[in-house]
Amino acid sequence: MKTIRLMIMVALLAPAALAQAPLGKPSPAEQAIAWAQAGIKQDASRVQPYNDLALGYIRRARETSDVRYYEQAEAAIQKARKIDPDNFETSKAEVMLLLGRKEFATALDSARALNKKMPDDVLVYGLVADADIELGNYKEAEWAAQWMLDMRPGNVPGLLRGGRLRVLFGDAEGAMDFYNEAYQKTPPVETESQAWILTQMAALQESAGNIDAAEKLVRSALDKFPNYYLAVEAEAQVKIDENKPAEAVQLLRERNGQFPTLASKYALAKAMESAGMLEQADGAYAAFESAARAQIGAADNANLELVHYYLGRGNNPGEAMRIAKLEAARRQDAATLDAHAWSLYANAWYVEAQAEMAKALAVGVRDAAFFYHAGAIAARGHDAAAAARFLNEALQLNPPAEIAGPARAELQKLQAASAASPALTSNAEQMDAAGMATP
Amino acid sequence: MIARLAITAMVFSLVASAGSLRAQTPAQQNSTDQAIQSLELHVKMYPQDFAGYDGLGAAFLQKGRETGDADYYERAKTALAKSLDLDSSDPAAYSAMTHMAVACMAEHRFRDALAWAQRALALGSGDPSPWAIAGDALADMGEYDAAAAAYANLENPLASEEEQRGLSFERESRLSSLELVAGHTQKALDLMRSAVHTAIQTRMSSENIAWSEYQLGEELFQAGDYAAAEKADRAALEEYPSYYRALGGLAKALAAQGRLDEAAEHYRKAIAVVPFPEYAAALGDVDSKLGRTEQAKKEYELVGFIGRLSEINQEIHNRDLAYFYADHDIKLDQALLLARKELEVRRDIYTWDVLAWALYKNNQLQEAADAIAHALQPGSADALIFFHAGMIQERLGNASMAKTFLQRALDLSPQFNVRHAESARAALAGLQALEAQSASAAPGEVSHAR
Q1: A8 or A239: which carries more pLDDT confidence?
Q2: Are the C-beta atoms of residues A252 and A263 closer than 8 Å to each other?
Q3: Phi/psi zone of residue B184: left (φ > 0), alpha (ψ -120 to 50 degrees), beta?
Q4: What CATH superfamily is the domain B1-154?
Q5: Which residue in A55, A57, A123, A150 has the most chain B C-beta atoms within 10 A of its own C-beta, making it the best mutation to test that interface?
Q6: Range of weakest confidence among A408-412, B283-287, B305-309, B379-383
Q7: What is the mean pLDDT of residues A156-163?
Q8: Pairs from A392-397 (Cβ < 8 Å, separation ≥ 24)
Q9: From the CA atom positions of chain A, what is the Rg in Å?
Q10: Cα Rg for chain B, rounded, in angstroms?
Q11: CB pairs A-B closer than 8 Å
């Protein structure tokens, strides 16, 4: 996976055609909000300014992670509905709000209904794709994204969905191409959009173990949109990979100074644990646990983080499995399936874990943590060859990843067992023959 | 100030190229009327068709361009707003947003034009044409580097060959104007010639071809090649008869060649199509030169009248009126006010130039020198700006600088303006005489001192 082309970055990091918005200047979402408000002031009987206002607030929520903007978006949608109950654009804004609030199943139903009503609206396919991706309906998502690109070749919303799907399908280079093209086509004044794309690219590079590249992309994202919380979170992940957990703690503390999410609180607690700040980590975990548990039944929850917490420092595998099952009943995306499989494994349901893991990997996703989980699960399922293959895959894919240590240890255990037990010799031979011995 | 290379004029070429409107925006006036009628019927029958309203808005823009009647821009905006009510978040909405930007450019609301173009781009349609309007707005705001960067985005490797040629036309014609502003006249001409070639090769609408030929004529005029400018304007008129821009351009080229009667005739024809104040002013100057004082007076009266016809006309013609008042030494305080007002929204070299000229006429010489420095800053090779710079320096007592600027104006384009070319020659002659006088007086003084 080292083959992701770094030359793409040269273009990315070149100066923008139009200067970035300086600090203190309204953000793109704030400008959109101001624009919509001016439109309402000019003519409060028109529906479109209210739709624009709703979209502006939804964008602002993405810019800041402050979910209170969704309430304002909802209010704008209600006003739009009063003016024109059947307005199609209002319906689209409504679906975007549902997606923002992570009500994916409802969003999918609404988006499909809109798609039926207006089958040539490119963005509606995007909304269908978004909901499908979140729910794990990858084939349907691929169909919708492909429609977007077929209907309007090279359109940015289509490229972004395509990029995301290519990541999930394990085509990192293809995803990078799409993201790069989308980035080039995004006007420089759209600073948050550019920063968002750069952050996605950084995450992709990070997952491939290209830490320097990831760091450069993150820095570039922060140049475009200073203090962007998603980029700061990505930078913290890079610091963890660089074995600088104290710096990650510092970054995440700053990030959590404003509108922390449950996920960012969990990331901070984890970074503290990695930095050996165990007392503080326990305090942070406890705060996270209490807040996350209150949201277990909600659409916008941190159930996957909660599962991983209970499988780690929280040391409550039973509860982890219960929550993972709950979440897997809601959505079947790769991350949820992986968490479910890992929780089953922790509770010694190895066969079920293996089946669930196979489902997670079936889409083609290439993630070091997933491969490590798959390897460990396969090892307990007495499939040493598969275990070795997965563990080696994890180590080759992302050597500096957090799971590298445990993966290496698991692989050594596997080799030791293979050497000690003649019954496993055939597996060990298979491992050697495949060139998959411990690096 | 007839037809300085106005970026604003360019944006209309995009009316025909944004979205799927190429077939819906006919070049000829009658077919534009037909298109409007047909699209009005279409949106009545299909009131949920956002593309229909977008097409109607584009047709109104075209009509506004053809008639110079600013009311059409209002009607265009109403239709485009309706289109955006129906669809504003899908990438397809970029077309209506781009047309909205064009409407704002026509009304000289450059910031709004830029904002609409940026909104269109933010939809990520994959069509780079909104970059053209973004660049136009930036150029009118005097942000030439940013404009050039915006124009550089007018490429789309995924587009068909025909679309790529269309983008190449948009890019080259605009970059040509920027090169001219930077004083790279030959490069500007090469780019414009290539744009004309592309327009003809790709069989663009007659009006688009005519516009590019007219624009080439303007550049040739600036380069002092009046015969070639005449040829380009005549080609434009052959392509699109009664094209008022080409009629005005041709009149100017004829006047520069001393064919004043013919020039007057063509100015009258241009005014009959679109009564722009700059044409009336130029006709007045030509008639005045021909000794038709009464006729010229009437035409000068017409200038102010047209400029005050409507609120939007006042906005659009601020600069032309400011030049007119300053050139003719009337309403000089108003000239300065209009120039300052224009500078609030438009900071290109021509607005700095008119401000400098109005300041000069109001005897605010140091401020005039500062303003003309802005006009000269990009390196522009524009005879009228050189003339203004020369006159300002002359009044400031900087004889050497004044002579240089006046000489450059006349070297570049010996008949750059019916009214001012002679003034430039006279001022230069005066300065040279003074120099000769002081040169001959100087030894005598020395001798006397001895």
Answers
A1: A239
A2: no
A3: beta
A4: Tetratricopeptide repeat domain (1.25.40.10)
A5: A123
A6: B305-309
A7: 97
A8: A392/A436, A392/A437, A392/A438, A392/A439, A393/A366, A394/A368, A394/A369, A395/A368, A395/A439, A396/A1, A396/A439, A397/A1, A397/A207, A397/A208, A397/A209, A397/A366, A397/A367, A397/A368, A397/A371
A9: 23
A10: 23
A11: 85
Q: Pick from B85, B121, B126: which is nearest to A46 by CB?
A: B85
Q: How far apart are CA B282 and CA B88, in angstroms?
A: 44
Contact yes or no for A93/A36 (Cβ under 8 A): no
Which CATH topology does B341-441 take? Answer: 1.25.40
Secondary structure percentages of chain A, helix, strand, coil, to 5: 75, 0, 25
Give the residue from B53, B78, B90 with the most A CB atoms within 10 Å of its CB, the best one to mutate: B90
List, in order, residues 6 or more apart from A436 with CB less than 8 Å away. Answer: A388, A389, A392
**What band does B309 get if pLDDT is binned at 50, 70 and 90?**
low
Measured distance CA(B359)–CA(B176) in Å, rounded? 30
Q: Confidence class of residue B276 from pLDDT cuts 50, 70 and 90?
A: confident
Q: Are B296 and B268 in contact (CB under 8 A)?
A: no
Shortest alpha-carbon distance between residue B390 and chain A (Å): 35
Domains of chain B, by residue range, sit at: 1-154, 341-441
Cα separation, B281 vs B298, whole angstroms: 10
pLDDT at B327 > cutoff 80: yes
Tell me the domains of chain A and their CATH numbers: 25-101 (1.25.40), 367-433 (no CATH)
Residues B279-294 pLDDT 10s:
999 999 999 999 999 9
Q: Which two tokens stand for residue A174?
A: 């293809």
Distance from CA of B117 to the nearest CA of A (A): 10
> Which single residue is written with the structure tokens 């919708």?
A144
Integer Cα distance of A108 and A100 in angstroms: 13
Q: Return the amino acid letter for A9.
A: M
CATH topology identical between B1-154 and B341-441: yes
Alpha helices in B107-181 (DSSP H): 110-122, 130-140, 144-152, 161-181
pTM for this model (two decimals): 0.83
Model confidence pLDDT, tens digit, residues A367-395: 999 999 999 999 998 899 999 999 999 99
| C-alpha–C-alpha distance, residues A304 and A147, integer Å | 31
What pLDDT shows up at residue B159?
78
Place of tokens 């124009």: B151
- Token readout for B375 is 């006009």
Residue in A35, A124, A185 closest to B126 by CB: A185
* Cβ–Cβ below 8 Å for B126 and A186: no
- Is the pLDDT score of B14 beyond 70? no
ipTM of the complex: 0.78
Long-range contacts: A50-53, Cβ < 8 Å, 24+?
Answer: A50/A76, A50/A77, A50/A79, A50/A80, A50/A83, A50/A90, A51/A76, A51/A77, A51/A80, A51/A87, A51/A89, A51/A90, A51/A92, A51/A93, A51/B88, A51/B89, A52/B88
In angstroms, the Cα distances linking A383 to A102, A374, A414, B72 are 38, 11, 10, 76
Residue recorded with tokens 């009311």 = B71
Residue A246 scores a pLDDT above 50: yes
CB of A27 within 8 A of CB of A234? no
Residue with tokens 């609404």: A110
